[in-house]
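Case study 2.
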Amino acid sequence: MVKKIRRTKEQQEYRDNLAHDLKKLRNYGDAWKDLAQTLLDNKKATKRYLESLGEGRRLNKKDSKRISNKLVEEDNIEILVENLDKFEWLNKEVADYLVNKLTRYSGTQDEHRIWWMAVAKNLDKFEWLDYKEMAESFIKGRQFDILVEYLDKFEWLDPKEIVNYMINNGRIRTLACDLHKFKWLKWLDKEIAEKLIEDNDESELARNLDKFEWLDKEIADKLIEAWELRRVSENLDKFKWLDHKEILREMVRRERLSSAFSVRSPRNLSKFKWLDKEMADYLISNGCKLDLELNLGVFDWLDKEIAEKLNIRYVVGHLEKFEWLDHKKILDRLIEDECWDILANNLEKFEWLDHKRVADELIKHCEWHTLVETVDKFKWLDKEIAWAIIRHRQTHLFVENIEKFEWLDKKIAEKLIKEWYWDVVAKYPEKFWLKKEK
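Prediction:
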């Protein structure tokens, strides 16, 4: 990102006036050239001239070379680098000058980095550039992260050479953070992981596991030994030949189950596979029943025996996971316990369920949010539910969820208009069976 220039009041006035004049002279080639040549006579004018081009404007090929050569002669690297995006067709001598100056730069670190980044972003503007030599200059200037970030700008450069050089010079962390730039080098991920482990830097590897692929059990074991089990469990898809059951047992053993099996981060469990009745029993017997209940979706081949040990509220959401389970008994128990909200969210799972009864019970218990969230699951009850919500002065909830309702009528439309919701009726006339009069 090029450093922004703060203009003084005088500089801004100069820019505005110059832009106005150049606009007038746009169609007069000689006048433009004369003005440009005049502006080249001193450093301050050159800087203002470049500023006057504004966003998106570029110098032509001839003026690019002339102005850049002038700045090189004056040893004015600051103006040149900060305005590189305004140039086109720069020659190799300008590139050599920039590299030579930057590798020996003694200014502030932030400014130094900004200038290197400006050069990397504009590499495609230099003619006859030796990209390998330029890459070596970035390495010499210890700008490894910028080199990797803009690797696609270095044409005809073999990334293997960059990788090997960085590995040999201890830049493993930089590679670990930008592995996506080298995804086609399949051997690289494991080699970088092994190097980090050799350097006792398992924590850095663990923090960047999401960027790796093609790791194996050996790497996972090393991370687990270094107490990075949680990170491994969150990135199980990055490893081959891992026993997911053994990973889970180890998590329980280390009393770290709550960090991976919790309401706050259930996404971690999506990486687990091949969990079955054996592991469900293991969790229950080790006091981790709630963790099982909250993550039933990642388990398979469960049975009636497991279901009877769990809270029915969680079982209902995953009936398909249990074999030999009597759904009718589950339904009767939910009705007996008056779990109407659970029934509303799982209407499609029970063939013998009276939808109207569930809706009436939700209305009776003023479960308005549950009603509007599940209205699309009730068969032919949209109009009845809508009227119940409106009668109980919860019209705003009905309006906020209007897209879920169908088969409404003209009377509901008239009621909404009386309550100043005419815009909703105008937006969804088809829901109220309204037709335009001829």
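Residues 262-267 have pLDDT under 50 and may be disordered.
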